[in-house]
């Protein structure tokens, strides 16, 4: 069993009267790609923001490579790369300046110059190379997303937390991201990602957890989830709908289809 990189114990987040994350327990090992699935408003982004050090938990604890997220938050931030779902960036920097800025926050003491080499490779892969001297304000949503991906993937961090990695990416870029995540994981990086995409979960993730109303209701690899007798024989979408209590949606869809047949 690989050493745990990310450990959450009864992690909770309360916003006034709303419990967005309600005592979740998780352990994710080195080199694992872990998927966090759930319907809108389930608590995925809130959990990811706590892991990334952007929100303080109101209960429970979390550690990254054995360091406490609350009492050693600075160390944890140095160990963690965060790729948000919405790419807010410094508009008045060029892409190249932004990458240099990120590199200065995560100095590569083991192999100086390696981050720059990787950044060049990824800029080429993502067709961003010719844009590196342009201001970020001129980038499209997808280009910004790819710049953030480049900035985090060029680093050698033990943990990457990624909120909805494929949103805004074209199919070619999405394919490249999947391959880069796999390569990173083979080299020992743990990737914790949230997704709505069943395809990504099935294709990329070693294990998944499904969160509903702030609580984890199922965890395991996709095959083991399917072994539940009530879920046997279901495709991944049906599995997700049943687990998240949205199975009645199938009746709604069937009714809509009948309705459109009548039009
Ligand atoms: N800053 C905040 N203040 C108050 N409530 C918040 C805040 N951030 C999130 N919430 C609430 O916490 C709950 C969980 O939100 P969260 O963004 O974590 O869900 P999610 O699973 O990421 O959803 P989605 O798939 O729609 O992105 C929601 O009810 C949301 O309204």
- What would CATH call the homologous superfamily? P-loop containing nucleotide triphosphate hydrolases
The figure for the number of domains is 1
CATH class: Alpha Beta
Strand line-up in the sheet with most strands = 6-7-8-3-9-10
Task: Quickly give the structural class.
Answer: alpha/beta
Q: What fraction of residues sit in β-strands?
A: 15-25%
Pfam families: ABC_tran
Protein name: ABC-2 type transport system ATP-binding protein
InterPro entries: AAA+_ATPase (IPR003593), ABC_transporter-like_ATP-bd (IPR003439), ABC_Transporter_VariousFunc (IPR051782), P-loop_NTPase (IPR027417)
Keywords: ATP-binding, Nucleotide-binding, Transport
Topology overview:
Blueprint: E1 4-15, E2 18-29, E3 33-37, H1 44-51, E4 59-64, E5 67-68, H2 73-79, E6 80-83, H3 95-105, H4 114-125, H5 141-153, E7 159-163, H6 171-186, E8 190-195, H7 198-204, E9 207-212, E10 215-220, H8 222-226, H9 236-243, H10 249-262
Parallel strand pairs: 3-8, 3-9, 6-7, 7-8
Antiparallel strand pairs: 1-2, 1-4, 4-5, 9-10
Summarize the structure.
Helix content is 38%, strand content 24%. It is built from ten helices and ten strands. Strands 6-7-8-3-9-10 form a six-stranded mixed beta sheet, sandwiched between helices. Strands 2-1-4-5 form a four-stranded antiparallel beta sheet, covered by helices on one side.
Structure description:
The strands form 2 sheets. A 6-stranded mixed β-sheet has the order 6-7-8-3-9-10, with helices on both faces. It has a single domain, classed as Rossmann fold. Helix 3 packs parallel to helix 5 (141-153) and helix 4 (114-125) packs antiparallel against helix 5. It has 10 helices and 10 strands. The protein is an alpha/beta fold and 263 residues long. Strand 7 (159-163), helix 6 (171-186) and strand 8 form a beta-alpha-beta unit. The longest helix has 16 residues, at 171-186. Helices cover 38% and strands 24% of the residues. Adenosine-5'-triphosphate binds at residues 15, 18, 20, 38, 40-46. Adenosine-5'-triphosphate binds next to strand 2 and helix 1.
């Amino acid at each position: 069993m690989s050493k745990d990189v990310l450990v959450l114990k009864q992690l909770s987040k309360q916003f006034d009267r709303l419990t967005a994350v309600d005592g979740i327990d998780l352990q994710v090992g080195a080199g694992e790609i872990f998927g966090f699935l759930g319907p809108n408003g389930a608590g995925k982004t809130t959990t990811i923001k706590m892991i990334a050090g952007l929100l303080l938990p109101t209960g429970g604890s979390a550690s990254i490579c054995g360091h406490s997220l609350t009492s050693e938050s600075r160390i944890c931030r140095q160990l963690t790369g965060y790729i948000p779902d919405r790419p807010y960036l410094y508009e008045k920097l060029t892409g190249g300046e932004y990458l240099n800025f990120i590199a200065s926050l995560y100095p590569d003491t083991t192999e100086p110059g390696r981050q720059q080499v990787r950044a060049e490779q990824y800029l080429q892969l993502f067709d961003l190379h010719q844009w590196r001297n342009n201001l970020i304000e001129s980038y499209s949503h997808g280009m910004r997303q790819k710049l953030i991906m480049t900035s985090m993937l060029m680093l050698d961090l033990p943990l990457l937390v990624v909120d909805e990695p494929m949103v805004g990416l074209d199919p070619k870029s999405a394919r490249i991201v999947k391959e880069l995540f796999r390569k990173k994981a083979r080299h020992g990086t743990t990737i914790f990602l949230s997704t709505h995409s069943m395809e990504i979960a099935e294709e990329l993730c070693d294990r998944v957890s499904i969160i509903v109303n702030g609580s984890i209701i199922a965890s395991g690899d996709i095959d083991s989830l399917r072994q539940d007798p009530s879920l046997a024989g279901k495709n991944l979408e049906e599995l997700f709908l049943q687990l998240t209590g949205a199975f009645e949606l199938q009746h709604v869809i069937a009714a809509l289809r009948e309705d459109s047949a009548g039009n």
